[in-house]
Amino acid sequence: MKKIIFTDKAPAPIGPYNQAVLSGDTLYTSGQIALHPETGELITSDIETETKQVMENMKAVLEAANMNFEQVVKVSIFISDMNNFAKINSVYATYFNEKTAPARETVQVACLPKNVNVEISMIAVK
């Protein structure tokens, strides 16, 4: 059985998908970009600020499922420019304990929704 997870503390979906789906004890999140949940404004002034907004959006989705970053087991990061990897990684690292950090891949892609620079999705287990 699946349960749809939604919070107004993260951006509303902009298509036929949900912020996250809980199936049993496993949470599958959709990718989050740097949309401010209250204003709908894209936060892209610099890559660190953009990444922080993405992670804060993801935090809100996890919390809506009564979960947190410690329960994340897999992360997918999509970036438009691999030259931003170190800056993205430095912000990302502040949300995880390095010793218990999840598995992860980071992939450079040609284009992301709304031409953002970073999109992140996660899988978490209770």
TrEMBL record:
Coiled-coil segments: none
Transmembrane segments: none
Pfam families named among the record's database cross-references: Ribonuc_L-PSP
Sequence similarity: Belongs to the RutC family.
Name of this chain's protein: Reactive intermediate/imine deaminase
Gene: yjgF
